[in-house]
Specification:
single chain; about 210 residues; mainly alpha; 10 helices; about 90% helix; about 0% strand
């Protein structure tokens, strides 16, 4: 249960679907409610597939490129920490490669936004991907794998519920409320990133 809660908390914090709410609202404001729900469902499904691929194929990527787990932890920790700082400073969308101009361009030119930019890179970005690759290397055995898969499913369902309720959340919390909560989540994300880096550095010095 502890592993399940840790992974769920880490995944949800790093993916931060709440920070994607303003982008989702901007991209779907001209859609009907059933269309928005369909986009939210497909975006969540795409996130689920990306997370699964990252978890199961990650170790082969490490082997192919000759990347050690400690190096991945440091790189992933830096990415996660940067994302956390972006949340604290209110530049989350910009850090994901999104801006007002790019959002407007997507509205005008893209017929399906569920994969990009919503699922990738807004939600299942490099931070979540590196997180799952690390979990795959650190937690072996069918029991741990089953727990991690369960955490991925729950996290994906949470993403779907947040996206589906985006317009309600915006009306209830407003932009200031979302920003305040995102900054709190940003602090947690920074702590997760720093923990990754310190654990990797400690392992390196222990090996030496």
């Amino acid at each position: 249960m502890d592993l399940f809660l840790v992974i769920c908390g880490a995944l949800i914090s790093v993916m931060n679907p709440l920070g994607t709410v303003p982008i989702f609202v901007g991209l779907t404001q001209e859609h009907t409610t059933p269309e928005r729900n369909k986009i939210a469902l497909w975006a969540s499904f795409n996130v689920f597939v990306i997370l699964l691929i990252s978890f199961f194929a990650g170790k082969f990527i490490l082997i192919f490129f000759g990347i050690t787990l400690n190096s991945l932890k440091i790189a992933g920790g830096l990415i996660i920490t940067f994302s956390g700082f972006s949340l604290l400073t209110g530049a989350f969308a910009k850090s994901k490669g999104m801006s007002k101009d790019s959002v407007q361009e997507d509205i005008n030119t893209r017929s399906d936004i569920s994969l990009t930019p919503l699922a990738l890179p807004m939600i299942a970005g490099p931070g979540a991907i590196s997180l799952l690759i690390t979990f795959n290397q650190e937690h072996t055995g069918w029991v741990n794998v089953a727990i991690i898969l369960g955490a991925i499913v729950i996290s994906t369902v949470f993403v779907y519920l947040i996206l589906r309720s985006s317009f309600v959340i915006v009306k209830a919390m407003g932009a200031s409320g979302i920003n305040a909560l995102s900054r709190i989540i940003g602090f947690i994300v920074i702590a997760i990133g720093v923990e990754f880096i310190t654990a990797a550095v400690t392992n390196i010095f222990q090996i030496k």
